Amino acid sequence: MMRRSPSPVLLPLLGVTLIVAAATLPAASHAAWVEADVNKDGVVKQVAQFAVLVYGLAHRKEITYVDVVSGETQAAVGGGTNYKLIVVAAKADGDTAQYECLVWGVPGSRSDTWKLHRFKKIRS
């Protein structure tokens, strides 16, 4: 939810009129993280596949999605959903590792509106 900035305030000061306006800042998210059912929620699996694909393309790594181990979701400020996932991905040589990823997106929206914020190896 965005806080609205107040209307500009005009302050006469020594014959000069100053315009003071507060910046509009997003409110901090106070929504709780909720455990996702990675076995039943198809969106979570798609988000995990998206994270692996985007990471591989951005870093020119041959990496493929294997599985999603666990996940949590959180309602994001301004709409959309944050996804905090633990995924398993395989390198070209077949070695697998677990990665923690953080993705923001709006289910049902175009793929170019989704954002991968973090993709960090946590276990080989």
From TrEMBL:
Name the domain of life: Eukaryota
Q: Domain Cystatin spans what residues? A: 40-120
Signal peptide stretch: 1-31
One Pfam family for this entry, by name?
SQAPI
Q: Does the keyword Zinc-finger apply?
A: no
Key words, A-Z? Protease inhibitor, Signal, Thiol protease inhibitor
| Gene Ontology terms for molecular function | cysteine-type endopeptidase inhibitor activity
Q: Which family does it belong to?
A: Belongs to the cystatin family. Phytocystatin subfamily.
Protein name per its UniProtKB record:
Cystatin domain-containing protein
